[in-house]
Amino acid sequence: MRRGCGERGSRKCETDRMRQARTEFVGGPLDGRRRPVAVNLAERIPAEFLVELPARGDGPARIAVYHREAVFGADGRRRWRYVFVS
User: Fold this and answer.
1) Domain segments of the chain: what residues?
2) Would the N or C end of the chain have less CB density within 10 A of its end CB?
3) How many other C-beta atoms are found inside a 10 Å radius of the C-beta of residue 62?
4) Are the C-beta atoms of 67 and 85 separated by less than 8 Å?
C-alpha cells in the first residue's frame, strides 16, 4: 500500500521539499537583497550563483555571476553571502 504525503513513513514529502537559506547579496543587480537559496546536505549554499538578466533594448541577455564568501557575525558564527564578480 502506498502512503500519501503527510502520512507516517512517507518519504515522498521529504524529498520534495528542499532546504533553503536566506542569503545576502553584495554588489551587482541584487545588491542589498536577501533571497532564498537551496542548500546541500552539508547545509552550505553553492559556491557560485548565476542570475540571468533579461535583454535591454537591442543588447543580449546577460548572466550575473556571484561567488560565495564567508562572513563572521558578532556572535562569532560563520555565515555565507554572495559577492558580485561580473
Assistant:
1) 19-84
2) N
3) 14
4) yes
